[in-house]
């Protein structure tokens, strides 16, 4: 199930972006998925919900949008990460 690896990568990228932008909580992640990327949307959402158990991301809304134009039909990328900013509670680096 490569969705677990993808979810792990999404989580790692989101953690980095959240730290860089002093987000205390991430509420939505939007990913674009090529129609031929062989990514199962429900499996990806399930995998992310299983590993995203830290308070700053728990219950995040993963929005998956299908794309199918030109060279993007096999790609997957994060389009946006949305969250709440609170300078006192920004996400700390995890080891």
Notable characteristics:
95 residues; hypothetical protein PF0899 fold; alpha+beta; single chain
What is the gist of this entry?
It is built from 2 helices and 3 strands. It is α+β, with helices and mostly antiparallel strands. α1 crosses α2.
Notes on the structure:
By secondary structure, the chain is of the alpha+beta class. Strands 2-1-3 form a three-stranded mixed β-sheet. The chain has two helices and three strands. The protein is globular and about 45 Å long. The longest helix is centred in the N-terminal third of the chain and has 19 residues, at 2-20. Helix 1 crosses helix 2 (41-51). The chain has helices spanning 2-20, 41-51, and strands at residues 23-34, 61-67, 76-85. The model has no long low-confidence stretch (mean pLDDT 88). It has a single domain (2-81), classed as hypothetical protein PF0899 fold (2-Layer Sandwich).
How many structural domains are formed by the residues? 1
Report the count of strand segments.
3
Give the overall shape, derived from the CA principal axes: globular
CATH class: Alpha Beta
Uncertain spans: none
**Average pLDDT for all residues:** 88
State the helicity in percent bands.
25-40%
CATH architecture annotation name: 2-Layer Sandwich
Q: Quote the distance from N terminus to C terminus.
A: 25 Å
Structural class: alpha+beta
Give the H and E element order: HEHEE
Q: Number of helical segments?
A: 2
The major beta sheet can be summarized as: 3 strands, mixed
How do the strands line up in the largest sheet?
2-1-3
How much of the sequence lies in strands comes to 25-35%
């Amino acid at each position: 199930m490569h969705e677990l690896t993808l979810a792990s990568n999404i989580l790692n990228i989101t953690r980095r972006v959240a730290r860089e932008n002093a987000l205390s909580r991430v509420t939505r992640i939007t990913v674009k998925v090529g129609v031929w990327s062989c990514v199962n949307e429900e499996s990806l959402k399930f995998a992310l919900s299983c590993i995203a158990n830290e308070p700053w991301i728990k219950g995040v809304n993963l929005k998956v949008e299908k794309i199918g134009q030109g060279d993007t039909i096999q790609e997957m990328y994060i389009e946006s990460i949305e969250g709440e900013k609170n300078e006192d509670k920004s996400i700390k680096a995890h080891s």
